[in-house]
């Protein structure tokens, strides 16, 4: 690894984002390969015993074991950290491994966490079930109500945790306002930025301390590999994240990191093309269904906030069918192009019924409180032809009696 072209932050931080996504973090071996190398190796050999000792002491730069770092994974981490504007990234095996690491690495029994109630189902499980099991108190608040965040703060509050736009209702939380509450409380703000993607929203610029992704979504973007990443500053990494990461073994596999690197090269192009499609599909759906929700629509309740913290409204649409589960299932079963699945951010459009799948683990009243009704459909818009998508949706709505 003597020839490195994309790793000097003094140079790469001056590049435009699209250049960073294609080139930043690249390390080349002496062969001068153009594409990033896939280092499918669990460990690394040392020239001498002294060198092994020095690497373990941190006196010598280099790799030791892929549970800690691996060249392919390190390239992905560096590229993501640069995109996000943080010093450090730690890539994990899944998005949930990233969320869990970001929370557990810094918490201990007796601490308190405040979380937004509208969240990915498994993130809610961390708050509602896992953390309390270890003596970490949690309070779930209406994330849109800034006074509720402030009112929930206690002297033991260490972390505020939110997702925006939230899955699946697209409810938005004011990141800067919650960051101010966190700062005042001496707590850290952790943001799950999956729905927005690094292209459309930069939580660190709004005051977030730690940003997490499921890279399974738009970063891979082609439905191939699971992955996650936690992005933070160096001090947090050294004190909390890296010790947790290396000793609990939540690392991303080198192969998956290689796929993610390839995904990043086209992410901005894909996300922008997907948002173009999403805006077109949302406008068409809105003519048929008043319940259609997307930040680009005139009736979106948090339009001002969306414009303030996101560059565009994202690739997800939600809408509700008055006929509940039966009508939702009829609609889903009538789709010819769009798949019934639970992933999102894929180049293939995907329709999901959160009530019966992704959010089923939540109690019925919690789902209803979040606006997840039996008739709610979540649509992840992909890269197919936009008129084909509208035709498919229109026909399926008609088949379902809309
Ligand atoms: C998918 C997702 C996760 C979890 O990611 P996995 O890669 O599936 O583990 C967390 N948060 C949000 C908002 C997600 O969409």
UniProtKB/TrEMBL annotation:
Keywords: Amino-acid biosynthesis, Methionine biosynthesis, Pyridoxal phosphate, Transferase. GO terms for cellular component: cytoplasm. The keyword Amino-acid biosynthesis applies. Its EC number is 2.5.1.-. Pathway: Amino-acid biosynthesis; L-methionine biosynthesis via de novo pathway; L-homocysteine from O-succinyl-L-homoserine: step 1/1. The modification N6-(pyridoxal phosphate)lysine is found at residue 217. One of its GO terms (molecular function) is transferase activity, transferring alkyl or aryl (other than methyl) groups. It catalyses: O-succinyl-L-homoserine + hydrogen sulfide = L-homocysteine + succinate. Its cofactor is pyridoxal 5'-phosphate. The keyword Amino-acid biosynthesis applies. GO terms for biological process: 'de novo' L-methionine biosynthetic process; homocysteine biosynthetic process; transsulfuration. Homotetramer. Belongs to the trans-sulfuration enzymes family. MetZ subfamily. Catalyzes the formation of L-homocysteine from O-succinyl-L-homoserine (OSHS) and hydrogen sulfide. This is O-succinylhomoserine sulfhydrylase. The lineage of its organism: Bacteria, Pseudomonadati, Pseudomonadota, Alphaproteobacteria, Kordiimonadales. The gene is metZ.
